[in-house]
Amino acid sequence: MLKAFCARRRLGLAPFFVFGDPALLARTAEALGLGASVETASAETACDVFARALPVVPLSSGAPAAATIESIERAVEAAAHGRARAVVTNPISKATLYDAGFKHPGHTEFLGALAKRHYDRDATPVMMLWSQELAVVPITIHVALARVPQLLTKELVVATARIVARDLQTRFGLAAPRLAIAGLNPHAGEAGAMGREEIDVIAPAIAELRGTGVDARGPFPADTLFHAAARRTYDVALCPTHDQALIPIKTLAFERAVNVTLGLPFFRASPDHGVAYDIAGKGVADPSSLIEAIRLADRITA
After folding, report:
1. Same domain, residue pair 151 and 85
2. What is the pLDDT of residue 62?
3. How far apart are CA 292 and CA 257, in angstroms?
4. Which distant-in-sequence residues (6+ apart) come within 8 Å of 110 by Cβ?
5. Full residue range of the structural domain in which residue 228 is found
6. How far apart are CA 151 and CA 141, in angstroms?
C-alpha cells in the first residue's frame, strides 16, 4: 500500500484511503525509507489528505484478526454510504482468521454476507481473476477437490455464468460476453469414458444458458483452453475447480492479475496473490497487482 501511494503521481492513481493503523504504517514507511507521509483521516477528509499524505482511518481493533475483519466491514460500509466508490482489499491470512472464529471460507463469501447487511439484499458473490491477457472464474472455490463432483451442479454452473455475463455487461461494458466453460475431467470426459460430469451437468447447463441468450460455449478440455489462439475466442473462462482457473492466469499475469468479486452491489478488487508473510515489512514486495486493482476499481466505477 505504501509503495502504491509513493507511485500515485507517476502512475496517475485515483485517491484512495486505508483502514488500518496510522502509527504502524508511518513507522514502516520511515524504516523502509520510502519518503511517504502518513496522516490520520476520516473517509470524508481522505481526498483532501491524499495530495500530501496517505490517509489512514484508524481501527478500534488491535488484534490482527479482529483488525482485518473490521477493516473489511468498514470498507464495505463506506462504499454503501457513498464515501468510497469501490473496495480494494489486501490479501488476508485465512488460517489466522479461522483461529479467531471467522465463519466464512474466504473474502468472497464474507463480502456476500456484508452485502446483505449493508445493502439489505441477497448477493451471490462470484470470484473472477482478471488481467489483460485472460479472465477466469472458478465455479467451485475454496473446497477440497474430492468434494467438487458433488458440488458441481447444473444449477451452480447456470447461476455462476449468469452473474458473470451480467457483470461483464454492466460493469465491464461487454455487450455480448463470450463464456468458455471447461470440463471437469481430462479431455472434457472423453465422451463419458473419463467421467460423466460434462454430459450430465455441464452440457445441460450450457444449453440452458444459450436458451436464455447467454453466449456460453463448451465444455472444453481444460488443457487446451488457455493457449493464445484459444484465448482469442472468449472473454472469460469458467472452470469447475479453483486450480483449473487460477494456475493459467497466475502463470500468464502473476504480477498484474486482479481478483474481482462479481455479483455484489459494490465493486471489489484485490491483488491475486497471498499475504507473503516471509517478506512482509522488508520493502521487497512487488505492488504491481495492488496497483492494477486500484486502477481497475477506478476505471470500472468512474
Report:
1. no
2. 81
3. 7
4. 72, 102, 104
5. 126-256
6. 10
Residue 302 identity (one-letter amino acid): A
Does one domain contain both 92 and 202?
no
Query: pLDDT tens digit string along 233-280?
Result: 999 999 999 999 999 999 999 989 999 999 999 999 999 888 888 887
The CA-based angle 199-165-206, given to 5 degrees, is: 15
pTM across the whole model: 0.91
β-strands 268-271, 258-262 pairing: antiparallel
Residues 45, 86 within the same domain: yes
> 62 in helix, strand or coil?
coil
Number of domains making up the chain: 2
Task: Tell me the pLDDT band of 106, cut-offs 50, 70 and 90.
Answer: confident
Asked if residue 7 and residue 66 are part of one domain, the reply reads yes
Nearest to 164 by CA among 188, 136, 184, 183: 136
- 265: its cell numbers: 452491489
